[in-house]
Amino acid sequence: MGRPEEQRERWNEAAERWRRNGAIVRELTAPVSRAMLDRASPLAGERWLDVASGVGDPAALLREKLVPEGTVVLSDLAHGMARTASEALGGTAPAVTAAAEALPFRSVFDGVTCRFGAMFFTDPPRAMDEIRSSLKPSGRAVFVVWGERERNPFFGEILAAVREAAPDAPVPAPDDPHPFRYAPAGKLAELLRSRGWTDVEDEPLRFDVAGPISQGEFWDFMRSMNAEIDKLAGELPEDGRAALRSDVERRVAPYFPEGTCRFPAEARLVSARRPASG
Predict the structure, then answer these.
(1) Is the pLDDT of residue 148 over 70?
(2) C-alpha to C-alpha distance for 81 and 75, rounded to whole angstroms
């Protein structure tokens, strides 16, 4: 597993790219944020924590539900990412630099959201204990993680192309931090149950990753957002990079029916509660 300092460095290095592309990322994953709020059912006046806030969603939608008396607090392992999320909300939400494994809160929040963050926790059991402890008794949490790679061609096609171009590149172990760590149905839910959470629900969330990226822009966008893909591509000779780009554009062509991207996608929507006592 990646160490916290390695993860922090990685995400601090990525922060500027995520800030630059934040609006696009929010549009691509907007259906996920809406589904999380539907499951979370936040109420005006409540206090919520958004863990691994990234580009500021679903925190921005949460804030709309909670104001004027309520609030959402942003948190991220990397200071650069916490700042990116804060800027996305116009600097109006408090932001805390803290790993999920070491949150500085106890029995403070009515709810917690974590969108596409749990896959990268360096110590998932401890992180789930910390998130639970940050909630008030009976407080609820909503997580979203990516589903199986085969059902997510937005990632799957480019990863397949990169693996063919760089067959000796290391492959993460199932429990290493990586996007599909909790893709198997029930895997994250079982972790939550094992850490004392109750009312655990796990269901597939199917949506389209759709937004203003053209087929010609797709490769550059993905390289800019994924340091590992960018590194692997950068290590190829010039003709290899050109061939990889061509292969990616060929593979993703079916997902640009009207000039902009529309990829079918599947995530897992997992919710749970802190017990009323304990």
Answers:
(1) yes
(2) 9
Domains in the chain and their CATH numbers? 4-152+174-218+265-273 (3.40.50.150)
What pLDDT is attached to residue 231? 87
pTM: 0.95
Q: What is the mean pLDDT of the chain?
A: 94
Which of the four pLDDT bands, split at 50, 70 and 90, describes residue 203?
A: very high
Q: What is the 3-state secondary structure (H, E, C) of the chain?
A: CCCHHHHHHHHHHHHHHHHHCHHHHHHHCHHHHHHHHHHHCCCCCCEEEEECCCCCCCHHHHHHHHCCCCEEEEEECCHHHHHHHHHHCCCCCCEEECCHHHCCCCCCEEEEEEECCHHHCCCHHHHHHHHHHHEEEEEEEEEEEECCHHHCHHHHHHHHHHHHHCCCCCCCCCCCCCCCCCCCCCHHHHHHHHCCCEEEEEEEEEEEEEECCCHHHHHHHHHHHCHHHHHHHHCCCHHHHHHHHHHHHHHHHHHCCCCCEEEEEEEEEEEEECCCCC
With cut-offs at 50, 70 and 90, classify the pLDDT of residue 2: low
The answer on pLDDT for 1 being more than 60 is no
Mean pLDDT for the stretch of residues 148-173: 93
Instruction: Report the pLDDT averaged over residues 167-178.
Output: 90
* Sheet (strand 71-76) strand order: 95-97, 71-76, 47-51, 109-115, 135-146, 261-273, 198-211
d(CA 194, CA 227): 33
Q: What is residue 10's predicted lDDT score, i.e. its pLDDT?
A: 84
